[in-house]
Design brief:
Layout (H helix, E strand, L loop, with lengths): L40 E7 L15 E13 L6 E4 L19 H17 L6 E3 L6 E8 L1 E9 L4 H4 E6 L9 E9 L3 E5 L2 E5 L1 E2 L15 E2 L3 E3 L3 E4 L1 E2 L1 E7 L8 E11 L2 E12 L3 E8 L11 E4 L2 E2 L3 E8 L4 E3 L5 E5 L14 E8 L9 E8 L3 E8 L7
Parallel strand pairs: 1-13, 16-25, 19-20
Antiparallel strand pairs: 1-5, 2-3, 2-4, 2-6, 6-10, 7-8, 8-9, 9-14, 11-12, 15-21, 16-19, 17-18, 17-22, 22-24, 23-25, 26-27
Length: 393
């Protein structure tokens, strides 16, 4: 039996984050039996599970839940089913979405991205927000029937802090990599990434494979429960090395070299060197990070580094130029890497400072090329290849 587009059976198939939902139903004999009730209230319970990466600690994200109502539920005459309407004032922004034409998992993934661009890109206010985690669950109650965009995001973060656009392939598309809108939440050691999803209320019970199809039996579920299934990645720290050269011997640049060693749970997770070169007295710094905040290049030299949060970090000044020495003889700094970023409270924990002075020997300057090597037995060592008039004694 053919139907008009508006009354076609709809199947909402969420991808990796929420259990599949579906707007579907069977033909009602005589149009009277077991009709879906759209005048009552619904709820949605989302379970948050602790996660870990191999060998790492098991941690819970600091996560909250925002629900944006995208469409109202409208009964389909003669069927135990409903379709979607964006005619309400609060849903007008979503009027361009082809909600009643979607028929596949990929269609709903694309619609979820479009809805997320409207809701998050347009800074719309959520219709419901849940931040209270009870028994590892977030429950939104008193929801009217319809279609909702479900956004899991970091508790206490602003949209500028939790919304990201990543260039990657979207499931089901053969086109080149596209920008995928994702949201993040954090634990101490991990970044939890979520893809916004659409879910309909009420819904039907899933079959044995977790799919909700028109042929599924059972009653409508007005309080479904779903599970967040994020992508989990290590959380990386930023490290700033700041150097002050109090006095300078004119004639040649002064280069200072630092080794950075980081360990976590007894294993080395990062090992590298960084350098700063001066052509006069003053202060400079180098920022080591996986990603750099806006404006960092104006204050620091930048160096890519993936140092896990929680790692024990030791920074050692292993070369202090030809005629300079660390003030007070202090050339080693150690700390535990935190998640604070430059400009945030607590980043001073991830900042190490060194101060050097001219040793007064009056040695001549020149060019020196330093070749550094590392061995597990002796650590870092360097060999100097000198140029004319250079003195490294």
């Amino acid at each position: 039996m053919k139907r008009k587009k508006r009354s076609r059976l709809l199947c909402l198939m969420a991808a990796s984050i929420l259990a599949a939902g579906c707007v579907a139903g069977a033909l009602m004999p005589g149009g009277t039996a077991h009709a879906v009730e759209l005048d009552g209230m619904c709820s949605l319970t989302v379970t948050v599970e602790p996660k870990n990466m191999e060998g790492g600690p098991v941690e819970m994200p600091e996560v909250a839940l925002d629900l944006y109502k995208v469409a109202d539920a409208v009964p389909v005459e003669g069927y135990d089913a409903y379709s979607f309407s964006t005619e309400g004032e609060s849903q007008a922004a979503y009027a361009g979405l082809a909600l009643n034409d979607a028929a596949s998992r990929e269609d709903w993934q694309e619609l979820a991205q479009q809805a997320a661009e409207i809701a998050l890109g347009g800074a719309r206010q959520p219709d419901a927000t849940v931040e209270d985690l009870q028994n590892d669950r977030l429950t939104a109650a008193d929801l009217t029937t319809g279609l909702y965009l479900v956004v899991a995001r970091g508790k206490g973060l602003t949209a500028e802090e939790y919304v990201f656009r990543t260039a990657e392939s979207v499931e089901g598309r053969e086109a080149a990599a596209e920008s995928l809108l994702t949201t993040v939440a954090y634990s101490e050691s991990y970044v939890f990434s979520y893809v916004p999803q659409l879910i309909s209320l009420p819904t039907k019970e899933p079959d044995e494979e977790g799919n909700i199809m028109p042929s599924n039996g059972g009653d409508w579920d007005y309080g479904p429960s779903v599970v967040l299934k994020p992508e989990v990645q290590e959380r990386f720290a930023a490290l700033a090395i700041e150097k002050t050269l109090a006095s300078f011997q004119a004639g040649s640049p002064a280069t200072f070299v630092f080794s950075i060693e980081a360990s976590l749970d007894g294993r080395t997770v990062y090992s590298d060197v960084a350098s700063l070169t001066f052509d006069g007295p003053g202060s400079k710094g180098v920022l080591l990070a996986a990603e750099f905040p806006e404006g960092a290049e104006g204050r620091y030299a930048l160096q890519q580094a993936r140092i896990p949060v929680g790692a024990q970090v030791t920074v050692t000044e292993i070369y202090s130029g030809t005629v300079y020495e660390p003030e007070g003889g202090q050339a080693v700094r150690s700390f535990t890497a935190s998640a604070a970023k430059p400009g945030e409270a607590g980043f001073e924990n991830n900042t190490v400072s060194f101060r050097n002075v001219y040793d007064g020997t009056g040695k001549n300057g020149g060019s020196v090329t330093n070749q550094f090597s590392y061995s597990t037995d002796s650590g870092w060592s360097w060999t100097a290849v000198t140029g004319p008039n250079a003195s490294i004694e």
